[in-house]
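Support request from a user on the community tier.

User writes: "When I paste my structure tokens into the form, the page sometimes reloads and wipes my input. The last time it worked, I copied everything first. Here is what I submitted, just in case something in the input itself triggers the reload:"
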């Protein structure tokens, strides 16, 4: 099997990873493009908290400290997205938080199974 360590680099949704202190340690190409007007890849090494409102900062700190997940949808400029924030682990220990931002198609089907 080929090396898939960097699968997220070309993943078509934004992937941003921060450590336990809220410092951004990784952004894939989509995240970098999404946040280009805020600095793109230059955000790596910067605080995730500086990019959010006070209420969002508190929510992120709580998620990291409690190792909890948060999922919601947003709409900006007519584009609807699913945001999923979840802890990530390294050697069984919580290492921070990862955020996935997935653009949702306007006519996305919903199934009840």
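"...and here is what came back when it finally went through:"
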């Amino acid at each position: 099997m080929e090396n898939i360590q960097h699968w997220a680099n070309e993943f078509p949704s934004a992937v941003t990873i921060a450590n336990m202190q809220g410092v951004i340690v990784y952004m894939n190409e989509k995240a970098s493009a999404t946040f280009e007007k805020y600095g793109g890849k230059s955000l790596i090494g910067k605080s995730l908290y500086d990019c959010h409102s006070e209420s969002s900062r508190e929510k992120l700190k709580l998620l990291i400290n409690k190792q909890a997940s948060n999922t919601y949808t947003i709409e900006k400029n007519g584009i609807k997205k699913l945001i999923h924030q979840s802890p990530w682990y390294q050697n069984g220990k919580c290492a921070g938080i990862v955020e996935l931002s997935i653009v949702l198609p306007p006519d996305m089907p919903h199934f009840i199974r």
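Agent notes: The reload is a front-end session timeout and is unrelated to the input. The mean pLDDT is 93. The longest strand covers residues 79-90. Escalated to web team.
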